Amino acid sequence: MTLRDQAYETFTEQLLSRQISMGQFVSQRELVKITGMPLGAIREMIPRLEADGLIRTVPNRGLQIVQVDVGLIRNAFQLRAVLEREAVRNFVTVATDDELQELRRRHLDIREAALQGVSPQLLATAQQMDWDMHDRMIDALDNDIISAIYRTNSIKIRLIRNEDTRMLPELVVSVMDEHLALIDALIARDAAAAEEALAAHLGSAKQRAVRI
Length: 212
Known about the structure:
Elements: H1 3-16, E1 25-26, H2 28-35, H3 39-51, E2 55-58, E3 62-65, H4 70-94, H5 97-116, H6 120-139, H7 144-165, H8 172-187, H9 191-210
Antiparallel strand pairs: 1-3, 2-3
Helix pairs in contact: 1-3, 4-6, 4-7, 4-9, 5-6, 5-8, 6-8, 8-9
């Protein structure tokens, strides 16, 4: 990766881990300290962050980190729904039987374990599996532009979830059930049912976000 790309990746990692606060004002020099990258890389990174909607320049105040508000929630989830509807229609035809059966088995394992109690490790595994499944469907489109747009939007979705809608222990079973409904439709090669299950899953996530 270029230094600019390294700076961008480090910035987003710090943002998602809450080392950088949403709505916070930062200077270029502070970004150097936060990322550990040279000033030149920071200056090259800033236009990309602005284009991705992760920061904005406020006259006389500096650079402000994105804030979670109703507009961000609406826009991020609408874009996610548009991209994932296309992805699931494709995935129902390109995913192999073995892959889908493995996805189903892993989800059932997580669900069964969650009924006995949700440890931090199980929660982290469930959350990662959630993200990985959606990323896999998007990448199966084999379109680098869509994948890049989706990854940027995913950062915003995860920022929203960091506020109050990340996968909580009491949500693991219900989220697994939502995924299993989608997986079962994929196994049946039923595009309409898969799209309906996806819409229900994304709708639940959005409703949790709206309550912030």
